[in-house]
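Quick start: what a row looks like.
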Amino acid sequence: MEQKAKVYKSKVDGWLVAVIYGFLAVVFVPMTVLDFQWIVGVIGVGTVAFVSLVMFGFRYRIADGMLTIKCCCFTAGKCDVQKMVSIRPTRTCLSAPAASLDRLEIRLGKRGTVIVSPRDKQAFIAHLQFLNPAIRVES
């Protein structure tokens, strides 16, 4: 029996926010304050807005037997829940649609893996296992 569509937000690491916004502040604040130019301020604000949209825009939607990974309004990928073999926690720093290093690696059989970082990992895993009880959860 299919559950209704559910969206899980990505977990966001505080240290990642501090590093990224700190870097942007180090780059744009001196240029804006010491030699104030409107264009630098506009570019700085635009950069912060874009980075914020990306960092806080990751969502994982489960509906109709598919896991859809979204970043803002873009779809970053889709996975058939029935093809999922296992889920295991990971702290890999490989590039992934995730704003945290507290991640889950979802193995898709021969097709590869997907790495996600849902804020509510237990509910996310339970939802996937409800749809596909054959998914193994490794520790």
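That is the whole record. The helical segments are 14-34, 38-55, 121-131. The first helix runs from residue 14 to 34.
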